[in-house]
Amino acid sequence: MPDLLGPGIEALRKADADFDRHFSEDRLFELARYRQEIETWNPEYRLVGAKDRRELTVKHILDSLAPVGLLSRLLEAGSALADVGSGAGLPGIPLALILREYRFTLIEARGKRAKFLAETAGLLGLTHTRVERTDMEQAVPGRFRAAVFRAFKPLEPKLLGALFRLLAPEGILAAYKGRRDKIDAEMQAIPFLSGLWEAIPLRVPFLEEERHLVIIRRP
C-alpha cells in the first residue's frame, strides 16, 4: 500500500507499545481516506487548523489515537461514547476506526460540519457511529459511559455541568490536554473536582509536545 499517511504510517506500524493496539493495513488505509476527506473539505468547511499534511497527521490524527489503549482498559466493550463538539471528527472518528467494539455518537451543532461527519462516517463504513446535529445542552442526557473532547479549554463549572449531564451514572469525561502544569492550575481552580480527576501522560509519535488525557469522574 502507498505511504498514504506520510510519517504517521510508520508510527502506526510500530505503535503497539504506545497505543497498545494492532493497526492492520485496512485500518491504516481507512485513516488515510479520512485524512483525505479532511483535506478535500477543509477549505470550504474550515474543519481543522493544520499547515500541512504532516501536522494534520501528527497533531490531529495521531494525537486523537494516543489514548486508544487506555480507553479500552477503562471501558467495557459495548460502551457508548460521545465525542462532544466533534468538529472534523477529532478524536471521535479515529477512535471509532480502531475501537470497533464501542458505540460512538459525534455531537456537533454546526450544520456543515455535521454533514461532513455523517458523510465521512458513511464513507468509512462506521456502522457503530452516529452523528447528532445539536448543542450538547440540547442532547438527550444520561446516555454515555464516557465523553471525549479535544476542543474545550479551559474547563469551568458551567461547561463541566453540561458535560456531566450527558453521562450515565459512574460515567467519565476524557479531556485531551497538554502540559501538566497548566492542567494542575486549571483543575485547582475547580475545587469541587478535588479527588475526582487524574492526568495520564500520553505519547504521540513524532510529537515532542507534552500531552495528557485528563480523566474526570462524575461527582
Annotate the secondary structure layout.
Elements: H1 7-13, H2 16-19, H3 25-45, H4 53-65, H5 68-74, E1 80-84, H6 92-98, E2 103-107, H7 111-123, E3 129-132, E4 144-149, H8 157-166, E5 167-177, H9 180-188, E6 197-202, E7 211-217
Parallel strand pairs: 1-2, 1-4, 2-3, 4-5
Antiparallel strand pairs: 5-7, 6-7
Helix pairs in contact: 3-6, 3-7, 4-6
Gist of the model:
This protein has a single domain, classed as Vaccinia Virus protein VP39 (Rossmann fold, 3-Layer(aba) Sandwich). The chain has nine helices and seven strands; from the N terminus they run αααααβαβαββαβαββ.
Write up what this structure looks like.
This protein has 219 residues and is an alpha/beta fold. The protein has one domain: Rossmann fold (3-Layer(aba) Sandwich). It is 42% helix and 20% strand. The chain has 9 helices and 7 strands, in the order H-H-H-H-H-E-H-E-H-E-E-H-E-H-E-E. It has helices at 7-13, 16-19, 25-45, 53-65, 68-74, 92-98, 111-123, 157-166, 180-188, and strands spanning 80-84, 103-107, 129-132, 144-149, 167-177, 197-202, 211-217. Strands 3-2-1-4-5-7-6 form a 7-stranded mixed sheet, sandwiched between helices. Helix 6 (92-98) links the parallel strand 1 (80-84) and strand 2. Helix 4 (53-65) packs across helix 6 (92-98). The termini are far apart. The mean pLDDT is 90.
Query: What's the CATH topology label?
Result: Rossmann fold
> Looking at the structure, what is the overall shape?
globular
CATH architecture heading: 3-Layer(aba) Sandwich
What is the spatial order of strands in the main beta sheet?
3-2-1-4-5-7-6
Calculate Rg over CA atoms.
16 Å
Poorly predicted tracts of residues: none
Give the helix/strand class: alpha/beta
CATH class: Alpha Beta
Return the average pLDDT rounded to an integer: 90
Overall domain count: 1
Largest sheet, strands/sense/barrel: 7 strands, mixed
**Ends distance:** 47 Å
What is the count of helical runs?
Answer: 9
Find the CATH superfamily.
Vaccinia Virus protein VP39
Helix share bin: 40-55%
Strand content: 15-25%
What is the ordering of alpha helices and beta strands?
Answer: HHHHHEHEHEEHEHEE
Number of strands: 7
